[in-house]
Amino acid sequence: MFSSKLTFATLAILIVFTASRYAGPSNHASQELSAPTSLFWGKNNGISYLTVTRNHNIPQFCTSSWAVASTTVLSDRFKVLRNSSWPDYNISPQVALSCISGVQGCTTEGDPVSVYQYIYQNGITDETCASYQARDFSNGIACDRLAVCKNCLPNGKCDIPNRYFIYNITGFAVAKGVTQMVNALQSGPIVCRIGVTSQFQNYQNGILTPTAGAQVLFTSYVSIVGYGASATGTNYWIGRNSWGTVWGDAGFFNLVSGNDALGVEDYCVYPTPNKTITVVTTNNQGEEKRSYVDIADLHKLEEEPIQGYLRAKPVTEETLSAVPASWVWSDVKGKNYLSWVRNQNIPQYCEASWAFAATSSLTDRFNILIFNDTFPQFTISPQVLLNCGVGNCTGGDPTAVYNYARMNGIPDDTCQQYVGDFSETCNSAQVCQACVSPAPANDTENSVCNPTTPAHLFKVGNYGNLAGVTKMKQEIYNNGPITCGIYASKAFAAYTGGIFKEISRSTTISNFVSVVGWGIEKSTNTEYWVGRNSWGTSWGEYGYFKMQMYRDNLGIETDCTWAIPSF
Ligand SMILES: *[C@@H]1O[C@H](CO)[C@@H](O)[C@H](O)[C@H]1NC(C)=O
Ligand SMILES: *[C@@H]1O[C@H](CO)[C@@H](O)[C@H](O)[C@H]1NC(C)=O
Ligand SMILES: *[C@@H]1O[C@H](CO)[C@@H](O)[C@H](O)[C@H]1NC(C)=O
Ligand SMILES: *[C@@H]1O[C@H](CO)[C@@H](O)[C@H](O)[C@H]1NC(C)=O
Ligand SMILES: *[C@@H]1O[C@H](CO)[C@@H](O)[C@H](O)[C@H]1NC(C)=O
Ligand SMILES: *[C@@H]1O[C@H](CO)[C@@H](O)[C@H](O)[C@H]1NC(C)=O
């Protein structure tokens, strides 16, 4: 396999090359539109608008590119609408697989138009409500009352959360041919049909020029996320597949444009996100209420930037004057470095916060210290740690995660989909798997899944423990989020927003979180931590919380772990 740094860099280098070297005429320039000669939503004015890359063939084989590409394009378009600001929305393809009836599903490739029609009529939820399981209504995940949004509890039962979000679109359109595609791409990525040949299946990098007359093995859907021209004048599309990071150039590809290569210019679809989000709340009597919120008003982790240095409580350490009064990695000079919020308790309850907090802090730190929030977005896999006995569904230790990462490295989520189970020892397929056709015939059958070599292993150099406000602030500011243990009280489980306070009588650590920064509430001069939990977007402030600082609320200042990323 190829070296990790090289593959991550190849596409970006091509783009830079294009921008500075391209001069001659192109197919694009000959059209009557003032579109730029190159565009890439993974690096548009230095900013990535692309959400996380997926693998639709784990944990089962499933012909769901129609659902996965369509929902990923909608997630990206929400990210464009929100100027790439925190947080990403990850629209759920599983809802489309379960709830769009007819022949479409894991055994028959469907149509993006049906996905957008479904969303336009019903709205759709995110990955933390309905996580991807690569099964459809016919082989395991029916469109029952929990199909749209569920959360599972310690007693093993699952229910609809008291509050969750529905995302909607205002419409969608079809594009065909270079002019329409380039036009459509100005507002965000598009989903396009593609004829898969063996050459495409074996693609690794560079600009793919299909061999004439090659046999199309099957039809699939991909995202087109930009276009460009090489130094020698070859025009190409930039595409993203959903076959994981082991395929192609970290999951991406370049395909020659202008001559309908692989039929990619025949049929593309793209939605327009609705900026009004529906909030569904259910009261104790089980009555459902819907309210509406504009996405610009929904998310806020920090007060307005503070001038000067205010402090709720004087701190004697001189060094602390070097850190700002507020600092949250969701917005550092307008850039969000935080990975997406996850839900450890779907598809089933699993107390794996130790794995989620440790891997998501580490993912953030790769973004901050190594990639500077460039594409492609990846997620370090918590499931591999459960598969390999680092901990289990009743608990584990972030220090053990970082030790495992130092010894072995951890692949990304496209090697192992989170399923919420565990084993004592792992084989190579449990580290990285590729499932092969056919899709399971029913809910008791499973795909054959073979081991494959991960494209990247995310490693850790040094790691260690720390405690106390000063050390926490310094470590977060210098290197990124840290992983801290807390006692998850009943009040914390019921938290819906604001600055949480509870001096815990228990010293038992029962949950791990990422502490991603701190802020200050000006009206009361209260300093607080900002943390990310792994209980989905329906908990707290879109999965995050604020906790009063200096009082060791729930023990958050007692038991923290840090790790330095390395390749
Ligand atoms: C995105 O940026 C535009 C232009 O600067 C602004 O009008 C809009 O409010 C921003 N949207 C969000 C959600 O921040
Ligand atoms: C989604 O938007 C469409 C068009 O505005 C509307 O008819 C539909 O009721 C919306 N669905 C939800 C769940 O908000
Ligand atoms: C967006 O969604 C809101 C709430 O469902 C709805 O009232 C509005 O009509 C939608 N906007 C468009 C343009 O469809
Ligand atoms: C990270 O990217 C931003 C632009 O988005 C740039 O201003 C900054 O210098 C970059 N940082 C590093 C360390 O390259
Ligand atoms: C989970 O791991 C802990 C600590 O190693 C162990 O005591 C416990 O028995 C394990 N639980 C299960 C269900 O295997
Ligand atoms: C599931 O499918 C397999 C393979 O076709 C078959 O052997 C098995 O009997 C089926 N199980 C059920 C419960 O239908």
UniProtKB/TrEMBL annotation:
Domain of life: Eukaryota
Record-level GO BP terms: proteolysis
UniProt family annotation: Belongs to the peptidase C1 family.
Domain Peptidase C1A papain C-terminal residues, every copy: 35-272, 323-564
UniProt keyword annotations, A-Z: Signal, Zymogen
Example GO molecular function: cysteine-type peptidase activity
Protein name: Peptidase C1A papain C-terminal domain-containing protein
Signal peptide as annotated in the record: 1-23
InterPro entries to which the protein is assigned, alphabetical: Papain-like_cys_pep_sf, Pept_asp_AS, Peptidase_C1A, Peptidase_C1A_C
SUPFAM superfamilies cross-referenced by the UniProt entry: Cysteine proteinases
